[in-house]
Amino acid sequence: KQPSAPSAVEAPLRELPWGQLNFLHTTDTHGWHGGHLQEPQYSADWGDYISFASHLRRRADKDGSDLLLIDTGDRVEGNGLYDASDPKGNYTSDIFTQQSMDVITVGNHELYKNTTSSHEYAKLVPAYKDSYIASNLNITSKNGDSIPFGPRYRKFTTRNQGIRVLAMGFIYNFRGNANNTQVQKVQDTIKEPWFQDAIRNRDVDLFLIAGHVALRNTSEAEYDKIYDAIRLENWDTPIAFFGGHTHIRDFKRFGRGTEKKAYGIESGRYLETYGFMSISGLSTKSKDVSTTVASPKFERLYIDNNLYSLHCHSNTSSSNFDTELGKNVSASIATARKTLALDRPFGCAPQDYWLYRSPYPSNHSVLSLLEEHVIPDTFTDKNSSHNPAIVLTNTGAVRFDVFKGPFTKDTTYIVCPFTSTFRMIKNVPYDAASRVMKALNSGGPILLGDEAGDTEATYEDWLGLRPPGPVRESDLTADHAEDDLSSFTRGAGEQRPLRSSNKDKSRITPGYTTTDDFGDDGDDTIHEPIPLYKVPNIIGAEIGFSSDDKAKDLPKNVDLVFNEYIQGFTLAALKQLGVSYGLENTRQALDGMTMTDVISGWVEKNWKCEKDVA
Ligand SMILES: O=c1ccn([C@@H]2O[C@H](COP(=O)(O)O)[C@@H](O)[C@H]2O)c(=O)[nH]1
User: Fold this and answer.
1) What is the ipTM for the molecules in this complex?
2) CB atoms within 10 A of CB 379
3) Model-level pTM?
4) Which of 36, 176, 267, 531 has a 20 to 30 Å separation from 335 between CA atoms?
């Protein structure tokens, strides 16, 4: 772990369900490779993961089983270690690639910008060679051709058991990518001759489908389509899915009726979780056990990323856990953090502010802090025209909590890593401008105009602002305070209070309490549940309204200011509300400041640290 990271707290643990073929899965790490420096439960770093995987590999070699490592994308954007360097990712790609992977895929965050996808293609793809699988992604080459980002699939045989694996790697039907990459819709990819040939291959013991794709409830049902396509040709070869994108822990049984050979895991976010899956009873190159074992056994465990868990699951201790490579990688992370001055404080937060752990609006909501203080103060200072204004931002731009204490350079990127600036349209009729936020928060399907290029898309669907359907961390509601737990009716893929059978209540810490298709015993650490609350798509503030405006005569026109990321949505909403504007009517606001600049500037002015005050 990093020198300043807190030590893990001992807690009751469930055992690793080790099997014939074992998997460690990471997803949506978003640059948190230094671990969580303010949360003991997630305080191990990528160097520790390297040591951990090495111990489990040794265990596999010793007992003749196998271990495969998978990562399903969104490795970038969300932490100073990635975002603070110039160019971004200058340190993280060398740090990340020290961990070997058997299958690795791309996420939407690797594709938002030309520079990010080009960096990924130049660094990660060659580092992982055949393991970097891109079944439905192309990139524009230097001479303008659209070429595969990586191999479409990979067939390999596991080292100890001789299990023949055919692996593919997908990204969901993402449409917000920059113009140098091309995402092929999953429903079209499964019609490709290479896919059809691959799923007809009889010399396969396991189909491994990895991707930056939610396991359930997606409007496009990408993984269900892949499942159906495989089963059409191959009625009983086991299938293991590895998902991502929605930042949750989840385990799903695929298919209908008596299907017991197709399961998928999703392994959280921000290097809080290592997903572990095992399968036992697979046939192998040398032995066909399908005749003797009716169904392979799938098991899962979500491992909290801290040294207590990692030592226990690898049967090591602090004296023999670190490998040479793991230690070196932890040291490189510490050096990079120092070079980037990530611990430099902008100020000190007087209390915790939560994204999902406190209701919105409330005094402990980071969104309320932005809406009531940060945005009004900053925009009032910078509003040279003194026209009344309405300022809107998407809540998706806010990524994490703020903890009491130093608010550092790292924190600015942790809260908002994006480089979008603010745009404005001057003199918008108040009647329309004041209803944009409600329209964008309404959730129901609203038809977009031609500019979205897809008349059936909803605002949330378009660009993936809030993909409708999949349960994600922001959707986890919090009637958790209820005393009567029996009234819980939520389904799999959600976090809910766990009725723990554990007697040793004193050692139970707050954390994940996951319910999935296998029940509520998937988290390695037995936790006290944390309440989580829903947030809207958009928050906003009214700036420079005179008290007269508020009391009686509302302004006729206002300047409508919005985060550049929601420009398309805002224009579409205005059109829906009867006033049409085009891109040519928008101009830069706030001298090109990003949300990250807005937040750090406000903290510097308003949150003194105690020793500064003295
Ligand atoms: O420039 C950007 C890019 C993305 N966002 C927000 O992020 C989510 C997608 O993040 P996931 O981790 O893939 O869920 C997107 O819906 C936006 O809300 C942004 O604000 N600015």
Assistant:
1) 0.99
2) 22
3) 0.92
4) 267
